């Protein structure tokens, strides 16, 4: 604490700061490959067909869309019902039992970031102030946990020479756990399409990782921001949740936290639609634990932003609960994933890069180019092509009209 004159300048956001710079760039060939927003082959951020139709239904319904009053603190009850069904029955039937037993606590959140914020606040108040994050990770992870009471941000090895460093990862957890007593630690796990590397563990590797986390009594926080954008199949992509809720193998004593977002897989970015669900453990007093967790989550939300916004969750709710729109949504997601794959294939044709040779290695919206900071700067300064500083490139910013320009520029800075 001090006076206003002593406030230091915070650094600009590593990703959104670049878009501000991009907007000022006068080069007609400028290309923004920074933010993880899906654009179509014409460079447009289009509304998913399923979402547009849900919006039309809402527009025409006085009953559904004229209520501008507050939502309840934990969100719209219908949204809760449909999201829980989508997550814990359809995507992950292994979760149905927890749902039937009333062991899943739920809050509608301000998208995935809001879910992580509520999670970290809850954990730091009651359970842990120490979290493992992959190195590298989405830069906002550390920021969110720090902002919400975590004083110990630890990084586990993730990436080495273009592949996953699973041994380093397990060693880090093991060593970190041995060197301390006290409250449990938490760990952030990217459910699929790891941001920024696009490299995900195989099923066998996940099994080893989950076994280790379970053995060390670390609290899992699954961050599922890209469900569907890996294989194009929303259900398939929830494999980490399914593996984690295999009750023959794991009983998460301190619960399992799922932070889920509809930003990317429904294209609802700015509407801020997502959820936090906490699968509480099987105990003789499970119901009481769940009710207590519910009550504290509610108190946190009330103090943080009071209640979530309404419109986006109504749209998502119509998509999830109207069978033909739900089918259309699955097709929309498939189309997005197909386009991302075809952009990657086009780049592989043009560039003889190791990172592009085996495309099955890189999952999701991003290509981790491996370019160093100097090359990324050259791309920006000489060609007005904007990548994130760590060399991450957002694939959907590429299309038929700019792919040649971008590939030529990438080749020229590649060493
Ligand atoms: N987690 C990861 C790994 C992400 O990449 C993102 C978005 O870029 C999010 C969470 C949260 O996004 P949102 O708050 O828009 O749902």
UniProtKB/TrEMBL annotation:
Catalytic activity reported: L-aspartate + 2-oxoglutarate = oxaloacetate + L-glutamate
A Pfam family that the UniProt record links to this protein: Aminotran_1_2
Coiled-coil zones: none
Gene Ontology CC: mitochondrion
Domain Aminotransferase class I/classII large, first and last residues per copy: 29-410
UniProt EC number: 2.6.1.1
Keywords of the record: Aminotransferase, Pyridoxal phosphate, Transferase
Entry keyword annotation includes Transferase: yes
InterPro entries: Aminotransferase_I/II_large, Asp_trans, NHTrfase_class1_PyrdxlP-BS, PyrdxlP-dep_Trfase, PyrdxlP-dep_Trfase_major, PyrdxlP-dep_Trfase_small
Gene Ontology terms for molecular function: L-aspartate:2-oxoglutarate aminotransferase activity; pyridoxal phosphate binding
Keyword set includes Transferase: yes
PROSITE patterns, per database record: AA_TRANSFER_CLASS_1
Cofactor: pyridoxal 5'-phosphate
GO BP annotation list: L-aspartate catabolic process
Family in the record: Belongs to the class-I pyridoxal-phosphate-dependent aminotransferase family.
Name of the protein: Aspartate aminotransferase
């Amino acid at each position: 604490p001090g006076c206003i004159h002593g406030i230091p300048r915070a650094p600009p956001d590593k990703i959104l700061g670049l878009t501000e710079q991009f907007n000022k760039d006068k080069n007609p060939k400028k290309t923004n490959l920074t933010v993880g927003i899906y654009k179509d082959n014409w460079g447009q951020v289009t509304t998913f067909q399923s979402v547009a139709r849900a919006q039309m239904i809402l527009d025409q319904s006085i009953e559904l869309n004229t209520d501008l009053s507050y939502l309840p603190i934990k969100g719209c009850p219908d949204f809760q019902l449909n999201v829980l069904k989508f997550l814990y029955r359809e995507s992950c039937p292994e979760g149905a039992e927890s749902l039937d037993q009333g062991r899943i606590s739920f809050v509608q959140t301000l998208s995935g970031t809001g879910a992580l914020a509520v999670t970290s606040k809850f954990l730091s108040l009651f359970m842990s102030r120490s979290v493992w994050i992959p190195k590298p990770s989405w830069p906002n992870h550390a920021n969110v946990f720090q902002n919400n009471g975590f004083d110990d941000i630890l990084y586990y090895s993730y990436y080495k020479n273009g592949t996953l460093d699973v041994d380093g990862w397990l060693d880090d957890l093991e060593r970190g756990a041995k060197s301390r007593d006290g409250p449990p630690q938490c760990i952030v796990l990217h459910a699929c399409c790891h941001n920024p590397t696009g490299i995900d563990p195989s099923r066998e590797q996940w099994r080893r990782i989950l076994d280790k986390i379970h053995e060390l009594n670390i609290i899992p926080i699954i961050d599922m921001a890209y469900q569907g954008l890996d294989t194009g199949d929303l259900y398939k992509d929830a494999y980490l949740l399914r593996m984690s809720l295999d009750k023959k193998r794991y009983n998460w004593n301190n619960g399992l936290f799922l932070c889920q977002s509809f930003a990317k897989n429904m294209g609802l970015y700015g509407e801020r639609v997502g959820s936090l669900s906490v699968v509480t453990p099987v105990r003789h007093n499970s119901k009481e634990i769940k009710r207590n967790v519910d009550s504290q989550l509610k108190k946190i939300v009330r103090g943080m932003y009071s209640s979530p916004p309404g419109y986006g969750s109504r749209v998502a709710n119509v998509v999830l609960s109207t069978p033909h729109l739900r089918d259309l949504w699955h097709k929309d997601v498939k189309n997005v994933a197909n386009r991302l794959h075809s952009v990657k294939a086009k780049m592989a044709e043009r560039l003889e890069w190791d990172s592009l040779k085996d495309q099955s290695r890189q999952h999701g919206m991003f290509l981790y180019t491996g370019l160093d900071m100097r090359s990324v700067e050259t791309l920006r300064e000489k060609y007005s092509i904007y990548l994130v500083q760590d060399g991450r490139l957002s694939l959907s910013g590429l299309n038929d009209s700019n792919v040649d320009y971008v590939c030529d520029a990438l080749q020229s800075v590649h060493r």
